[in-house]
Amino acid sequence: MLALLEKTKASSIDEFIQSELKLDGVPSELIRKGIEKLLQNSPIKYKFNAWNNQN
After folding, report:
1. What phi, psi does 49 have (nearest 5°)?
2. What 8-state DSSP symbol labels residue 25?
3. Count of other CB atoms within 10 angstroms of residue 1
4. If 0-12 CB within 10 Å is exposed, 13-18 middle and 19+ buried, where does residue 16 land?
5. CB 27 within 8 A of CB 21
6. Exposure on the CB side of residue 41, measured as CA atoms within 13 A
7. What is the pLDDT of residues 15-48, one digit of tens each?
8. Sign of the C-alpha dihedral computed for residues 55, 15, 6 and 46 taken in this order
9. By three-state DSSP, how is residue 29 classified?
């Protein structure tokens, strides 16, 4: 997952979920929470500035 996040051109976690993961039928809130946990201590969290500014 981190490798996909590192390569993505998406500027938000929601955009990443829709464009990269293509999980239209899955509740994105659960996926977003998991991704946010992965990014907490990750050096690539800077890529999602909107999410970082909320915390």
Report:
1. -55, -40
2. T
3. 13
4. buried
5. no
6. 0
7. 888 888 887 777 778 888 888 888 888 887 777 7
8. negative
9. helix
Length, in residues, of the chain: 55
| Residue among 31, 32, 43 nearest 2 (CA) | 43
User: What would the pLDDT profile of 4-15 be if each residue is shown by its tens digit?
Assistant: 888 988 888 888
User: Encoding tokens for residue 35?
Assistant: 């991704």
What distance in Å separates the CA atoms of residue 15 and residue 23, rounded to the nearest whole number? 11
- CB-based contact 35:16 (threshold 8 Å): yes
| Residue 18 contacts residue 12 (beta carbons within 8 Å) | no
